[in-house]
Amino acid sequence: AERANLAGVRHIVLVLSGKGGVGKSTLSTELALALRHAGKRVGILDVDLCGPSIPRMLRVQDSAVHQCDSGWVPVFVGQDKAIALMSIGFLLERPDDAVVWRGPKKNALIKQFVSDVAWGELDFLIVDTPPGTSDEHISTVEALRPHQLLGAVLVTTPQ
């Protein structure tokens, strides 16, 4: 199922940094919007489990995720439904609920996001990661290893 759900994704781009507050989610959102403006089919996978801000940035925080035969259907953003988005923010009872999980549960959800989301045909999947260099990053890279990974964008500040 994992290979099937990502089979239509041509390129995967990780957005990461060594610390929080540098603008990873903003850059992920702007990159997705710019690619969409260029005519590309785009998805965003928000694996920042403790701070899922992209649903709010794209004004879809009250949306719900649905199931289909292939797994979870991502939320489609905008009037033209041009950007597919999956985030833990859609799975919480309230958007501001805290996620306080240990590593194994976080890692299992990341693997589930990679294997169980029906992305369809995408030119780019942007993966917004949490701050730092934690288990979530290792789990994400390991889960995506069998797929063509275009690369990573490292967000820094001039400090």
From TrEMBL:
It comes from the Eukaryota. Keywords: 4Fe-4S, ATP-binding, Iron, Iron-sulfur, Metal-binding, Nucleotide-binding. GO terms for cellular component: cytosol. Transmembrane segments: none annotated. This is NUBP2 factor. Gene3D superfamilies: P-loop containing nucleotide triphosphate hydrolases. One of its GO terms (molecular function) is metal ion binding. Coiled coil: none annotated. PANTHER family: CYTOSOLIC FE-S CLUSTER ASSEMBLY FACTOR NUBP2, NUCLEOTIDE-BINDING PROTEIN NBP35 YEAST -RELATED. The keyword Iron applies. GO terms for biological process: iron-sulfur cluster assembly. It comes from Loxia leucoptera. Pfam families: ParA.
